[in-house]
Design brief:
The protein has about 425 residues and is of the alpha/beta class. It folds into two domains: about 290 residues, Rossmann fold (3-Layer(aba) Sandwich); about 90 residues, formyl-coa transferase, domain 3, CATH 3.30.1540. The protein is built from 17 helices and 13 strands. A six-stranded parallel beta sheet has the order 5-2-1-6-7-8, with helices on both faces. A three-stranded antiparallel beta sheet has the order 9-10-11, covered by helices on one side. Helix 2 packs across helix 7.
């Protein structure tokens, strides 16, 4: 990715020249037209923005992104910053929209379509997450826009893809988790299927799509042509079944269902209750199991024929798990962390979200940052996770207010006059 600029500079058609807030980021000089909302799409474009792309987010001029209303909680508006009414900016929206500019625009109007055509001509990438075919009636489909800009990389994120019998289904994360196997393997051993605690299928789809876009940028540097990327939550969920899907394909057998925090073929490997919480312990081989026995004060377990090998422990799972938990309940989680320190045993406290965000390692890795929001003042956000040796991705722009950059983009990028912008606003095309 760091070499992307070298590819771009020898492209058959020279890249656009414009400045960004931070120089030397991997995607500096790349402009993204973001026509997505909710999670998978905004997460994808946020990754591109974190890496230096200029992301222009198109929002409904009145409602904005759906997640603007998804609260509480909200970061409250400050009266010394804005006279805007309402509860504030939703935490959900703030989570996936940093490093973007917001344009409030309706493409129900022909004038709005014209604005988007002009933007598409000036952009390297367009990302959208509408149902297949629904943008065609507005002439915003790939076939139309590649005539406007043959170098445009156009990424479509949908629930089930552009083809197949489910292509016209709306695909929220939880439905895809259910349909594509993840929910079946998530939950306690004898309990019902449950969804993952975050919308992980949306997030992995955003990750896959951002990666595909960056690969397409490198391909374009060789060919001079853009292309259409078809990214489906369903496909990404099947792909991330990983070793479980491979096991089912190779064995031809039914999967073994839900395991909670346990592992189907490694024992001990699960969470155990402590005096004040839980601790996760994983002894992946016999040597580590012996160390665990020593640390919990029962060296005799490692020579017990029921437990001396992993296969024996798997066969006597309930017995050894019960013995371990009877010991872990006698001390606090913190006490066990001290006991296991330096042992080589994989172990971890099970923290809640606040415990995670305030964790010393999380803080040391700069994973929580503070930004100055134009209407809410200082707010804390999760930072971008990847570190580079030569560049510093981070939060250059706080998540924007609805339409915060409409005039800026229309005036500076598309060269609309003040009178033309005022006319578009009067007609309800922009906000």
């Amino acid at each position: 990715m760091l070499a992307l600029h070298r590819f771009l500079r020898v492209a058959p058609i020279a890249p656009r020249r414009y400045s960004t807030a931070t120089s030397s980021l991997p995607l500096e000089g790349i402009r993204v037209l973001d026509m997505t909302r909710v999670l998978a799409g905004p997460y994808c474009t946020q990754i591109l923005g974190d890496l230096g792309a200029d992301v222009i987010k198109i929002e409904h001029p009145v409602r904005g992104d759906d997640t603007r209303a998804w609260g509480p909680p909200f970061a409250k508006y400050r009266s010394d910053r804005t006279d805007k009414d309402g509860p504030g900016e939703s935490a959900y929206y703030l989570a996936v929209n940093r490093n973007k500019r917001s344009v409030g625009l309706s493409f129900q109007h022909q004038a709005g379509v014209e604005v988007l055509h002009r933007l598409a001509k000036e952009c390297d990438v367009l990302v959208e997450n509408y149902l297949p075919g629904s943008l065609k009636k507005y002439r915003l489909d790939y076939e139309t826009l590649r005539e406007v800009n043959p170098r445009l990389i156009y990424a479509s994120i949908t629930g089930y893809g552009q083809t197949g019998p489910y292509r016209d289904r709306a695909g929220y994360d939880v439905m895809v988790e259910a349909e594509m196997g993840l929910m079946h393997i998530t939950g306690t051993r004898d309990g019902p299927p449950v969804k993952v605690g975050v919308a992980v299928t949306d997030l992995t789809t955003g990750l896959y799509t951002s990666n595909a876009i960056m690969a397409a940028l490198i391909a374009r540097a060789r060919t001079g042509r853009g292309q259409h990327i078809d990214s489906a939550l369903s496909d990404c969920q099947v792909a991330t079944l990983a070793n479980l899907a491979s096991s089912a394909l190779i064995s031809g057998e039914k999967d073994s269902g839900r395991w909670g925090t346990a592992h189907p073929s490694i024992v001990p490997y699960r969470s155990y209750k402590t005096r004040d919480g839980d601790i996760l312990i994983g002894a992946g081989n016999d040597k580590l199991f012996g160390t665990l026995c020593e640390r919990v004060g029962h060296p005799e377990w490692k020579s017990d024929p029921r437990f001396s090998t992993n296969s024996a422990r798997v066969a006597h799972r309930d017995e050894i798990d019960g013995l371990i938990e009877s010991e872990t309940k006698t001390k606090t989680t913190h006490e066990w962390l001290d006991i296991f320190e330096g042992s080589g045993i994989p172990y971890a406290a099970i923290n809640d979200i606040q415990g995670t965000l305030n964790h010393s390692h999380v803080q040391a890795r700069n994973m929580v940052t503070q930004v100055d929001h134009p209407a809410c003042g200082p707010i804390k956000l999760v930072n971008t996770p990847i570190k580079y040796s030569d560049t510093s991705p981070g939060v250059r722009r706080p998540p924007p207010m609805l339409g915060q950059h409409t005039d800026e983009v229309l005036r500076d990028l598309l060269h609309y006059t003040a009178e033309e912008i005022a006319s578009l606003r009067r007609d309800g095309v922009v906000s």
